[in-house]
Amino acid sequence: MNIRLIDPAYEHPYISHSQKVIKTIWFARLTLTTLAALTPPDIEVKITDENVDPIDFEEDVDLVGVTGMVMHAPRAYKIAQRFRQRGIPVVMGGPHASSLPSEAKEHVDAVVIGEAENVWEGLLEDFKRGCLKPFYQAAAFCTMEGLPFPRLDLLRKNAYMTINCAQTTRGCPHRCDFCHVTHFFGKTYRCRPVDEVIEEVKRLEGDFLVFIDDNIAGNRRYAKELFLRLKPLKKQWASQASMTLTRDPELLRLAAESGCVSLFIGVESLSSENLKDVNKSFNQAHQLEEAMKALHDHDIMVLAGFIFGLDHDDEGVFERTLRFCERNRIELPSFFLLTPLPGTALFQRMEAEGRLLHKDWAQYNGATVVFKPRLMTEETLQRGFNWACREGYSWGSIFKRVFHPQQRFFTRVLSNIAYRSIAQKTPEGYLPSLSQILQRMNDTIPLKNTRDLIQRVGEKIAEKKLLIGQKAADTLKLYSVYNERLKTLFVRLEGSMDREGARELVKRLKGVLNVEIQKVILDFKDVGAISSEAIALLSRKGLLHGEEGRLWKAVNASGITD
Ligand code: B12
Ligand code: SF4
Questions:
Q1: For ligand 2, is residue 182 a contact (CB within 6 Å)?
Q2: Less crowded by CB within 10 Å, the N or C end of the chain?
Q3: What pTM was computed for the model?
Q4: Where are the alpha helices (DSSP H) in 278-362?
Q5: What pLDDT does 333 receive?
Q6: Whose CA is nearest to atom 40 of ligand 1?
Q7: What percent of the chain clears pLDDT 70, i.e. is strictly above it?
Q8: How far is the CA of 346 from the centre of ligand 2 (A)?
Q9: Under a CB-based contact definition with an 8 Å cutoff, are residues 511 and 539 in contact?
Q10: How far apart are CA 195 and CA 9, in angstroms?
Q11: Which ligand 2 atom is nearest residue 242's CA?
């Protein structure tokens, strides 16, 4: 008996990679090599990764296995159809089939839901006996002990940057709303015995490998032991981790000493409101810069992932994020559009809110808008994203991010060149016209005159006590968010305001009201202290409309007087 396992290609004018790019930055997933390792030795098994080799649809095989993420599903179904037309049964597994097994079953003969470890052999037995069941799902997650080493020998070695991949853990202790991992693995985070990982790593040729874990440092005690044991092997490695890693100096040091040279970190957003919304508050917005610095101090190259289109993202998000990457010398920024993947909490929410534009899975690729954003139109989001992808890999931006006196300079430049070639295929984008205005609106205003500041009144005593602590605030911070759909700018003010601050605020507001912004709503509730001159000025300009219990809240500043 012989089986062909297939990883479908993703045919897309600007997302699919050329062979050259695959060779420079792409590593092999462990999906099919793991499945092959689970296959009994009396069965011949071969792998085709359609990204690097064509599929032979005329091949004489007994059974075909196909995998796929959401965006691969339409292609996977087409592949299945071609083999089934010839009477060859097809089994499908992987993230998409596991989330939507009934849909997948319409296109294939059997669907494996979740991990294959506990069901694959049984499925093959059933197949041999001619009684393949429609669905296979293990009653429990598999043990991490004694897992067979993936059959890397079945991959075409020279097609990728590396085929040296290994996995130390499965799952993630966190539960970010948009992520498929926690849906797939439930709340589990399972670690392989360190001895087995070390044995597997020792067998890999060469001195570089990728740990394809979702979060290699999800269990700090385990990670520390692993890193200590890796160190003597003198390998270099790359992986993914959550930002919590950077807050444990010992863990970070051990990672670096064990050979960690680059990490993919899901930063996702610079806005704490966004992070809270998607259940990712453990990424603390105010610590992002520190976290990036900590990684660089250990000479770890940062691949940072950012998501555009979250509910608090306005038109300023693209430029703000890119400048953050430049300021913090993030070597390889990766921008994604928010994508509600079936099975995730985000998908359920978007579907319930009627915000999904369609269910054409091929478009669920992280680079195409598939939902209605809250503060922007679909078009603004798409074009802003395109702009960030292209601009982020312009020579100017590469220069700002990469040219600094640290090691591995050539690796940094070469990987940027490869990413640039992908970015250049992105369609033209544009920076939303309000972007700069929004950046200016958000610039902090320094306080010039601290005399005459008076405490806000009208708040409850407890809140007042807190405000007294803010008396010394010597700046006025502005947090502006523009809602393109309502044509309204919301400005939250925080700190203290003197006359100059009030003047500057009025000047900026006048500027924005000349453009397409039709209405401004000012929120004064976090202004701790304000001078009587500032109050007088704001009143004269028609900016203060006291509301009951919130003395300094002003609304509808559409008609600022001269
Ligand atoms: C490595 C990796 C990548 C690599 C892939 C390199 C490559 N050559 O393709 C990189 C970093 C480039 C990448 C990119 C992307 N990835 Co990715 N990636 C992973 C990661 C971390 C590991 C994959 C892996 O090797 N797993 C180990 C194997 C053993 O597990 P497995 O694949 O789940 O397979 C098991 C079962 O699912 C089952 N199974 C799977 N297939 C089949 C088939 C059959 C026939 C059977 C019987 C069983 C079976 O058996 C296996 C053993 O139990 C996974 C997360 C994860 N934990 O899996 C995300 C993951 C697969 N990626 C994901 C996503 C979204 C992407 C991107 C779309 C992100 C983006 N927006 O750009 C891109 C798409 C890239 C592309 N064009 O294909 C999502 C998929 C979600 C979904 N529902 O579609 C995942 C789950 C991560 C997440 N956070 O949600 N990725
Ligand atoms: S930390 Fe990363 S892997 Fe873990 S749930 Fe969040 S996005 Fe997924």
A1: yes
A2: C
A3: 0.92
A4: 288-297, 317-327, 345-352
A5: 97
A6: 94
A7: 92
A8: 13
A9: no
A10: 35
A11: 1
